[in-house]
Every structure is written in C-alpha cells, then in structure tokens.
Design a protein that fits this description.
alpha+beta, LysM peptidoglycan-binding domain-containing protein, 4 strands, about 150 residues, two-stranded antiparallel ribbon, LysM, membrane, about 40% helix, transmembrane helix, transmembrane
Length: about 150
C-alpha cells in the first residue's frame, strides 16, 4: 500500500467538510450540458416542503358541475336502457322447448332473439325466466324461451 494514502491515529476520525456545501445542477439533454453551481442553503426549504397547490373557488365549482353533469347523464342513459329492457321483456311471449345436445343459453338467445335486446340480455332473460343458477344446460331439459316472431 502507498504510504501517502495511509492515515494514522486520531487523524482518521477527523472529518473535513467545506464551510458551505455546494452541488452542481446539470441542464441539457443528450447533446450536451451546462453546469450551474447552486447554493443549497437557498433551495433547502423548497426541497424539504413541497409546494402546496391551492385550488381556487371557480375551479372547484367547475369540477363539481362537471361531475354532476356526468352523473345525471349516466343516470339518464341507464334509466333509458332499463326502460327499453323492461318494455321488451314485458311484451315477450314464451314457448317451451326441449334442450338438444350442444345447446347453450347463448345459442338459444341467438336462435330466439328479442327485438331491442342484445344476445347477452336475451341469454340473461332466459336464465332468469327458467330460474337457472348457472349457465350450463342439460340435454333433454325443458326450457321457456321467447316465442319466434
């Protein structure tokens, strides 16, 4: 080992720090940089406590109005869809069929569609009308399905 790098005795415990610490902030991108010397004593509070964002009353009112409008619009779309579903279901007449091997609620909903309802909604309706807990069907079982128009 080189003798000049060795520290003996109490000198090993002595910490020498500069009187005023500084660091360098590098600005720029991949193409190059411009070093800036910054005194951390001036920026110490900014680093410790993040700046608080104060929302102004007009901003809060605008957000509240937007959320209210969104809620009202969502509820009107939902209630209109529910009304269309209820109207379609109330006018349905049923016929009883025998389940064939390979039949599913989806295939029956496609085979016996209800005007104004999607295949998923028709499938759900067939499951509800027949009080089925799950979607699997047993061949030979009797089910109520919408009458063909």
């Amino acid at each position: 080992m080189n003798a000049t790098n060795m520290v003996q005795g109490n000198l090993a415990l002595k910490l020498e720090t500069p009187a005023e610490p500084t660091f360098t902030v590098v600005q720029g991108g991949r193409s190059g940089f411009q070093p800036l010397t910054v005194n951390p004593a001036c920026n110490q509070q900014a680093a410790v406590a993040p700046a608080r964002v104060a929302l102004k009353v007009p901003t809060i009112v605008a957000v509240a109005v937007a959320l209210t409008l969104f809620f009202v619009l969502a509820m009107s779309v939902f209630s209109a869809r529910h009304a269309a579903y209820a109207e379609s279901v109330s006018s349905v007449t049923y016929e009883t069929i025998r389940v064939q091997p390979g039949d599913s609620l989806w295939s029956l909903a496609e085979e016996y569609p209800i005007e104004g309802l999607s295949t998923q909604e028709t499938s759900d309706m067939i499951r509800n009308v027949n009080h089925l807990e799950h979607g699997s069907l047993a061949a030979g079982a009797h089910l109520k399905v919408p009458a063909r128009s």
